Amino acid sequence: MESSHIIIACAIALLCSPALWLILGRPRYLSDLDHLGEPPQDATQRYSISIIIPARDEAENIADLLDSIQAQSLAPHEVIVVDDHSTDDTASISSAHSAHVLPAAALPADWKGKPWACQQGADYASGDWYLFLDADTRLQPDALASLAAAIDATHSNHVISVSPYHTIIKPYEELSAFFNFLMVAGINAFGIGKGSQNNSALFGQCLLISKDHYQQVGGHQIVKSHILENFHLAENLKALGIKLTCYLGKGTITMRMFPEGFSELWRSWKKAFSTGAAKSAPRALTLSSIWITGSMFAAISSITALLTIDHTHSLALFIALTYTVYAAQCYFSFRKIGSFSPLNALLFPISLIFYQLLFFTSIISKKSGQSTQWKGRSVS
């Protein structure tokens, strides 16, 4: 690549870099809300939160989540684990941790697994609020109190969702960085400008909705055939004029997504692509694409410069500046959504190349008619 081409690539990258602030420049954390000032027993009766956990082969995760629920400063009204035809010890482990286990009925032909499990849990629940949690989430001791504070902050009139903070333990999990970024950015809840106000979607891993709003929208029945039920549920709620509020879970709610290895990580993110992650709001999708494009130009120009050492001092500084801008932006965004290593941000082209590889693999698989499998079920 000639020097003039490298200069153009760096210039394009720098022009694309402000897109990050437009989609993630105004983060909102659940942990920033004031906790309740009333006695825990009174608060438990007042908020009456039924926790509903759809679980299919979650023996590796469910005990840690239920232990974290038992440690809450604000006790839930009830804890319901909907056992979605698990082939492992999910049901027995849940019972041993004092949850009510609700065996799921046979999956109807026109339903997807998670919406069907959630609907059954909601039909059984007796609380005034339904908190749907994925089995791989974990709650810090004040998490339910913070969610109750969110109910008060929104005058008991919003549907509330939280993006859990991704706990990174093993090196291969670092490869999730750009996927997690896009998952948060695609909700369109934390940007600057009117385009990201009152136009967000919902996070499916942690969703709190009042019984009245749930029944008004038609429950999960309205999204029964969708894998990304959170996006479609958000659309139906907004159509009814019901407001949505999203938070980041750092310091309050966490998740451990892929404890079983790299292959689980690959299948899960491939599932997200193959089931229509482009349901993101057009503004969020456009700005995210611009920033990812800028990241690619920054990475390509830097890698090319390393392979071609014959550059002027001023050009080398320009390349270094461009790379530093994106490494800093990666650090800023990655650390807000997960415990990603600073080294991940410094070497962001590695995670970016993996993201592009999986993205194109998913497109090829979908065009060739290949079915994506997840826990024994086809999701595409």
Share in helix:
40-55%
State the domain count.
2
Order of helices and strands: HHHEHEHEHEEHEEHEHHEEHHHHHEE
Number of extended strands: 12
Biggest sheet overview: 7 strands, mixed
Average pLDDT across residues?
A: 90
What is the terminal separation in angstroms? Answer: 40 Å
Widest β-sheet, arrangement of strands: 3-2-1-4-8-6-9
Helix-strand category: alpha/beta
Number of helical segments?
A: 15
Low-confidence stretches are: none
How does CATH name the architecture of the largest domain? Alpha-Beta Complex
Overall geometry: globular
Structural features:
single chain; 380 residues; alpha/beta; 2 domains; 7-stranded mixed beta sheet; 15 helices; globular
Strands, helices and their partners?
Blueprint (H helix, E strand, L loop, with lengths): L2 H14 L2 H6 L15 H8 L1 E7 L6 H9 L7 E6 L6 H7 L3 E4 L9 H12 L4 E5 L3 E3 L3 H11 L4 E6 L1 E2 L10 H9 L20 E5 H7 L11 H11 L3 E6 L4 E3 L6 H13 L7 H26 L5 H25 L4 H5 L1 H20 L5 E2 L2 E2 L2
Parallel strand pairs: 1-2, 1-4, 2-3, 6-9, 7-10
Antiparallel strand pairs: 4-8, 5-10, 6-8, 11-12
Helix pairs in contact: 1-12, 1-13, 11-15, 12-13
Task: Give a written overview of the molecule.
- The protein has helices at 3-16, 19-24, 40-47, 62-70, 90-96, 113-124, 143-153, 177-185, 211-217, 229-239, 262-274, 282-307, 313-337, 342-346, 348-367, and strands spanning 49-55, 78-83, 100-103, 129-133, 137-139, 158-163, 165-166, 206-210, 243-248, 253-255, 373-374, 377-378.
- It is of the alpha/beta class and 380 residues long.
- The strands form three sheets. The protein has a seven-stranded mixed beta sheet with strand order 3-2-1-4-8-6-9, with helices on both faces. A three-stranded mixed beta sheet has the order 5-10-7. Strands 11-12 form a two-stranded antiparallel ribbon.
- α5 links the parallel β2 and β3.
- α1 runs antiparallel to α12 and α11 (262-274) crosses α15.
- The protein is globular.
- The model has no long low-confidence stretch (mean pLDDT 90).
